[in-house]
Amino acid sequence: MIVEVCINYQDANVDRTFDYLVPGHLEELVEVGKRVYVNFGVSNRVVEGLIINVKEDTNVEREKLKCVLAVIDKIPIVSDEQIKLAFSIKNYYATKLGQALGLIIPPFVSNNEIYIICAQQTSDLTLEDELKEIYNRILKRPVSANSKLAKENEDKIASLFLRGLLRFELKLLKSLNEEKRETPTEPQYKLTKDQKKALELITSTFDKGIYKNILLFGVTGSGKTEVYIQAMRYVISKGKSVILMVPEISLTPQMIQNVKRRIESEVVVYHSKMNSSQRQRAWLKLKSGEAKVVIGPRSAIFAPAKELGLIIVDEEHETSYKSEKSPRVNAVEVAQMRAKINSIPIVLGSATPTVEHYYYAIAGKYAICTLRERINKALPEVFVVDMKKEILDGNKSIFSRLLLSEIEKNLQRGEQVLLFLNRRGYSPIVICRECGYVYMCKNCSISLTYHKDGYLRCHYCNYKQEYTSICPKCGSKYVRQYGSGTQRIEDEIKTYFKDARVLRMDKDTTTRKDAVEEILSKFKSKEADILVGTQMVAKGLHFPDLTLVGVINADTILNMPDFRSKERTFQLITQVAGRAGREKQGRVVIQTFNPDDYSIVAASNHDYESFFEEEIKIRKTMGYPPYSYIVNFIVVSQNEGFAKKGIENVYRLLEKCTKIVNLKIYGPSESPIFKVENQYRYHILVKFEKASQMIDIANMIKERYNYNNAELIIDVNPINTL
DNA sequence: AGCACGCCGACT
DNA sequence: GTCGGCGTGCTC
């Protein structure tokens, strides 16, 4: 018996599998998805590997074959379906199989912890007895022909198992206090016509057992959640499970509450602040099928849901679904792969769908349902203020006259205000007026942001230094802070409205574990009149008395050097605007220097279609997605010269491809932010005509790039090219 | 990642 | 002559 093993998931610079011989005493233990210990390389290091195939024969010469030393897991920690998913990810994102598996294998799996928990789950023996039995079975037999090595390996493995034995006692104590669960209450909700249609489409697609993207296009407050819940109930009633993806768990407490209350099965919530034992419990509940619903952000798409029947991606346009760390996967794309593997529907919900997805929907590639009505109230009234004109009229304030007067009215009425600015800190640039020196991060090519606590901070690497008002370059004392962040908005708004109670929500005020919930509940219970915040406040929040939203500067995203900047602007304005007047009539004031830009005009008219029409024309003439497929090849090194050499290697490889397929190469050039955390970055952007060509060439470059002095990052379908 | 193999410069 | 530099390639 032979097993095909993927060695050391994460970093080993090998992207192939290896065959190992299974000794007789391990034959009944090996299974696809279990981990094994094997000898690897000339020095026979003991390494961990994952079995991805069990077979009778191999092409490898017998004398090369080594034996499996031990089987680590009692049950597979990765299912067949998840292994298929790993291969899809490897192929599409041009990663190594190990990297793809690394996303799927739960991070808490270390040594034999899973073995221990699983033993606890399945055995009739006491835990300790079973562990001892396993220990004896695996270790008290010859593991390899070479007896010297065998002894060393035994010692190594024995020590791993002993560590496990110590842990198991703690686990035993913990498992005695099992959590209890609220029983769901079975209320009937009446659906609107549109909701009914959407639900029917989802359930009938599910019944057919086919892979299909269903775009659920509905404005904020049109009742998407109700469609999700009823669809989930249907799928669960047929014995299947559901993954519900949300962009950020701490901002969707209402939805989670709703789902928990209305779903028959146990609901597991994944979030980044869970500790290792909470994660283990969640993982096991899904794996065993005890829980049929998992809700969570990006990582939830890798959850071990058993017999998956439906995937729902809420706010599918959110960029947080894309990982910024290598491998740069997009959880929405991964969700599509997983839906395809399982032949199930995937629901993409949004009020502002991505241009690509909407394009596929109207082209007939995806199904689409539109929820037109806003269930409670009319949409808010939107005013666009031209800030050029404000300046011409002598208004030097950050706030337009209209915004100030609207805030005033709101405060008088006892209603609440939300002020949105996409930038934290006090001011983003500190500059010497004598010599022009801009305070820069010493690790990144980024200007430092002045914070109110007297420190200058880099928002890329968190480097901080004390602020001195004397220029470090020329010694002048004419140093000035330019621009505004949320801290400054908070300060200045207090000078205009001295009695107003102001709260601020951004990365700086929410580092503590429950900080987000605390700020939101304070605002909800009307302990504050004005909430100032970044991106965080734009999403999903619902406050009955919030009737005015101010967008301080709509241009921050618009001016980014990215072909999606208009789309992002439209989405963000629409989203923040959606926070106003969810029950009473709301108003929105948008401050901008580009009042005529179509993304801003369309957002102010709540008109997705006309935004889309303008945007798709530009995408077509410029050859951007969905009319092309983009890959960003980035080469990174601490040494500038190495990075440059690396990107030149990539360029040479790409040039050869121009003879075979039609592609457009932009670069090589320095990345827009050249240095990040002391790493120099060069990149080449490549546009392909066909997805298949993109995949082939990205994989070819990955295979052939062998310059070890600089790391190559392949970003397929990049969201952020900075 | 490790480790060996291999092909060039400055040394006992 | 040979010790060691690290480029290249392999690991079942």
TrEMBL record:
Query: Which of the seven top EC classes does this enzyme belong to?
Result: isomerase
Amino-acid positions noted as binding Zn(2+) 1 in the UniProt annotation, renumbered to this chain:
C432, C435, C471, C474
Q: Which InterPro entries match?
A: DEAD/DEAH_box_helicase_dom, Helicase_ATP-bd, Helicase_C-like, P-loop_NTPase, PriA, PriA_3primeBD, PriA_3primeBD_sf, PriA_C
Q: How is the cofactor bound?
A: Binds 2 zinc ions per subunit.
GO biological-process terms attached to the record: DNA recombination; DNA replication initiation; DNA replication, synthesis of primer; double-strand break repair
The cofactor(s) it depends on are: Zn(2+)
Domain Helicase C-terminal: from-to ranges: 462-630
Signal peptide residues on this chain, from the entry's feature table: none
Residues of the Helicase ATP-binding domain? 205-371
> Which SUPFAM superfamilies does the record match to this protein?
P-loop containing nucleoside triphosphate hydrolases
Q: Which GO terms describe its cellular component?
A: primosome complex
Per UniProt, where does Zn(2+) 2 bind? C441, C444, C458, C461
* UniProt-listed Enzyme Commission number(s): 5.6.2.4
Q: Which reaction does it catalyse?
A: ATP + H2O = ADP + phosphate + H(+); Couples ATP hydrolysis with the unwinding of duplex DNA by translocating in the 3'-5' direction
Q: Any idea which GO molecular function terms this record carries?
A: 3'-5' DNA helicase activity; ATP binding; ATP hydrolysis activity; DNA binding; zinc ion binding
Keywords (alphabetical) are: ATP-binding, DNA replication, DNA-binding, Helicase, Hydrolase, Isomerase, Metal-binding, Nucleotide-binding, Primosome, Zinc
Can you tell me which family this protein belongs to? Belongs to the helicase family. PriA subfamily.
Q: What does this protein do?
A: Initiates the restart of stalled replication forks, which reloads the replicative helicase on sites other than the origin of replication. Recognizes and binds to abandoned replication forks and remodels them to uncover a helicase loading site. Promotes assembly of the primosome at these replication forks.
Q: How does it assemble?
A: Component of the replication restart primosome.
| HAMAP family per UniProt | PriA
Protein name listed in UniProt: Replication restart protein PriA
Provenance organism: Caldicellulosiruptor changbaiensis
Q: What gene is this protein a product of? A: priA
